[in-house]
Queue: 2 jobs
Job 1
Amino acid sequence: MSYPKIRMRDRRKDEATRKRFRETAQVSASDLIMPVFVKEGIVKRKEIKSMPGIYQFPLREVAVEARKIYDLGIPAVILFGIPKYKDEIGSSAYDDNGITQEAIRIIKKKVPMLTVIADVCMCEYVSHGHCGVIKKKPETSNQKPEFDVDNDETIKILAKIAVSYAKAGVDVVAPSAMMDGQVKAIKGALVKNNFPKIKIMSYSSKYASSFYGPFRDAAESPPQFGDRKTYQMDYYNSDEAVLEAKLDIGEGADMVMVKPALGYQDIIYRLKKELKFPLACYSVSGEYSMIKAAACAGWLDEKKVVLEMLTGFKRAGADKIITYYAKAAAKWFKT
Ligand code: PBG
């Protein structure tokens, strides 16, 4: 096939014509999900050093913040709780009066129309900062200190966390620990406890990424030893991301996810093409901080760069975009 007469530049000559030929719908606030950090035991919001403009909120400010987000046209938040006390097994994560549970309750009471998603993981709640419980290995005198996360013990705790969020009134749980069988365990526990309607947005294809650096400041959850490569995905792989998502769909996930987003648009594209299933991408903390830093230095036009990036995620196939720029972008869409 050839198109000898088509002059592509005719389509680009003015904004009205460019708009007529657009293949991707403009990103709107309704595509976005705003992450919200809630910290136990603080009285005033605290800006995260490595993420200027993003805060840890005290419980008493969370409803007002949720209202602002909702009023901007953003339909959902994803909550991360930071508890006062951490232990080896993350017991504060499934405490029915824990920080995340309280935040869910307050938001659902004050801003009922806002969808509340809660991250289901252990890393913010455990003293060692890993996403699961650590296997106890028999110690011998010449054995190197090794660690491994106990997959099957961890998914039992993740299920308890999810049920506890459900009791508090959460709409969607988002397991992010990258343990095998976590979606199945959570789905089973939700159904057993009479919460069959709670949806699961699975962090199905989550890579071991250095772009999470600033988040670990925000959620106060850096691993105290080792790293997360024994459970998060190796970024050399792409087929594996598809397989992970398929497994989660089989276990009962309602939406799958690619994380990070910026260096992983090929993965977003593949998942959408091959699975044709609701898909979110998570533009992570490091993606926010890079742009913010360059914008603060006057090196980039923040607004234009962010809108270009978000459109890229949508063009690649993401239905929903989790981004720390959600609020800012929603304001930009209005102007
Ligand atoms: C794990 C979790 C992490 C993020 C979201 N959920 C951290 C990690 O896996 O290391 C990272 C989000 C970001 O960097 O913005 N509970």
Note: The first helix runs from residue 15 to 20.
Job 2
Amino acid sequence: MNSLVIPNMNPNLLLNKYLPLIEQVATVVELGNVEKALLHKKTGELAMVLRALKDISDPAERKQQGAAANVVKAQLEAALATARQRLGGQTGAVTVDESLPAIVPARGHWHPLHLVQTELVDIFRSLNFAVYEGNERETDDYCFEFLNIPASHPARDLQDTFYLDTKRSDGLKEVMRTHTSNMQVRMMQQQQPPLRMVVPGRVFRNEAVDASHEHTFYQLEGCVVDKDISIAQLTYLLRLAMSTLLKADVKIRLRPGYFPYVEPGFEADCSCTQCAGKGCAVCKYTGWVEMLGCGMIHPNVFKAAGYPAGTYTGFAFGIGINRLAMLKYGINDIRYFMQNDLRWLKQF
Ligand code: DAH
């Protein structure tokens, strides 16, 4: 007769109970607890089962139960070993000092350019601007021709533009876009005014790289088209956006600037937030920091978009995101953005 009195004497019950537990343990401490519950000399459930074998009086029965218990024991031990390996090969018997600081797993985080771009996009989104990303690979038309950039313009020079030797069936030349302005006419062709949009994205220039020039950088193009749009609205919008981004009440100053797709065209400066306009190294002691190019959209651009002549007015602007990030974080070399040095990136 089987004289065992302890519960769970059927060793298979131990398998049902402990195998799932062992598979799920997530820490060495948990594993240690499970091991203890099974193997503790006095209270361990498996230990008790094994110990109770000697009390079986019938030798044949004892042999049979002993064999069954050993199979279960081997299975449980194998599962424990697997879990130990999964948790880093540490022995479950190690006493763990729970007062030690936890090992925090390394987590990824946003790149400084992405931080600035997202902040900018959020500002314009809150003002009801649509956001488009657009193509990095673009036809010559949208990057230059439709933007009133003549074939003789220096931007088209091989030294500035990466031309692609793709062979399109329509014969159009393709380039890596040199600015996010490429999306202006594309989006105008697809919708009628009123139009309010921003285009954040990556652009490419075939340039010699130095502390202030990169072959790959980020811009945010903005564009508003409607009836009776004015320069005053442009400056108001720029002031609002820059003040929100830089968390200061900034002023905007327009200087004449030449961009073929706007007339009049401007370089917009922002009052220096470092010195509040008094003059410092950041603003080169002028009180102003050069921010972006902008202007009133040229009639030839509306023409390329297929808008009826003389009906609409609008403004456009192009912000260099790298430049803004450099200002915001005090970065003095544009090359850091692309080096992906984790020691540098971790700071943001
Ligand atoms: N596309 C210009 C650049 O890459 C920036 C720019 C200037 C955009 C004037 C505009 C603009 O929309 O009106 O430097």
Note: The chain has two domains: 11-86, 112-345.
